[in-house]
Model the fold of this input.
Amino acid sequence: MHMRLGNAVRARLFRLLHARRFGSFGRGTLVVAPIAVEGAERIHLGSEVYVAHQTCLAAQPHTGSAECRLEIGDGSRIGRFNHFYATRRIVLGAKVLTANNVYISDNLHGYRDPETAILDQAVEQVGDVEIGDGSWLGHNVCVLGARIGRHCVVGANAVVTRDLPDYSVAVGAPAVVIRRYDTASSTWRRTRPDGAFLEPDAPERDRA
Done:
């Protein structure tokens, strides 16, 4: 109870002191004691968003992009120790849920020159990141330059480097789709790694 009360107080204090710095900061939105906020003017938070403590929110155009935006949609719930870093565009839709320690980025450190420390190489732009409405990202998920569809489930410790279709379940590193919702049968069905539905009587070796 005391912890919840303390978080509520810290979130309201943060709103009072910092909300005007943001590109937008929606009604009822709470950000609890973030570990860092970089480029607040490029960060847009919808209404009724909750960001748990020790999260990093950043939108800095380190790759030279004319546009740089981090957006979290209405009603989303962001877990503890998340790290979102946009150099061009990261957009989370409405009512996205993330567990703790989720990392989302549209960039990575260059490493092509083997004679130069990676620390000294330029930050490189990869794909824009979009997380569809109603999706859930499990504990320790990493999303790097990929799009995740609506109402997806991404299992714990997955590393998403390729786009995932709507209504899918993905696991692994790199993440692969193992289930999708079939509108024809109104059921969640197992899939091959390419996303094609498995037949109900498919042998076990085809389910790998």
About this structure: The first strand starts at residue 24 and ends at 25. The mean pLDDT is 93. The two ends are 46 Å apart (CA to CA). The helical segments are 2-18.
